[in-house]
Specification:
Layout: E1 3-6, H1 16-19, H2 29-38, E2 44-47, E3 53-62, E4 69-77, H3 86-100, E5 105-111, H4 115-123, E6 127-132, E7 144-150
Parallel strand pairs: 4-5
Antiparallel strand pairs: 1-2, 2-3, 3-4, 5-7, 6-7
Length: about 170
């Protein structure tokens, strides 16, 4: 049993157990605070009955015109709570927020080597839109997939037509 609730500033002092996963991108406190200040509706936490942080999702709305979309900046679930459907629940939450904001799609970046996450996103309806070469600054040999899922605003599903060639990080808009 878990509860979804908005992420708060106090949670920044309690979420280290979730961020210790080597596949989780970890940022400085100011980065988290910026997201909390600008896009609080996109920052959600899964909490156990005892108050332990089970996982969280943070994202934002960005782009213009038919590129207006929801973006998943970070999604992580503590190893103790994996395989319970929490990640899917958190993704559904972010998609619903993006629908309310009239976004055309939701996108995210995932390490090409993270097969478990890629498989989960595909099961949730995401496709590999493009490969971003050397996306991860700490590991220049690690590429990312830019994965996307069209929302109801994108009636013709134009946002999920895959690109035929990889791009570099500076080409990502």
């Amino acid at each position: 049993m878990s509860t979804l609730r908005p992420f708060t500033c106090d949670d920044l002092f309690k979420f280290n157990n979730v961020n210790l996963d080597p596949l989780t991108e970890t940022y400085g406190l100011s980065f988290y605070m910026q997201y909390l200040a600008h896009w609080p509706e996109y920052f959600q936490l899964a909490e156990s009955p005892s108050g332990e942080i089970m996982g969280y999702i943070m994202g934002k709305a960005e782009g213009v015109g038919d590129n207006w979309h929801g973006h998943v900046t970070a999604l992580t679930v503590s190893p103790d709570y994996r395989r319970l459907g929490l990640a899917a629940t958190l993704m559904k939450f972010l998609e619903e927020v993006s629908e309310k904001k009239q976004a055309y799609f939701v996108d995210l970046f995932v390490r090409v080597s993270n097969k478990v996450a890629i498989n989960m996103y595909q099961q949730l309806g995401y496709i590999v839109y493009r490969t971003v070469l050397e996306y991860y600054s700490g590991d220049p040999d690690e590429d990312a997939y830019d994965m996307r899922k069209a929302l109801s605003k994108d009636v013709k599903k134009q946002s999920v037509v895959p690109l035929a060639h990889p791009v570099r990080p500076e080409e990502v808009d």
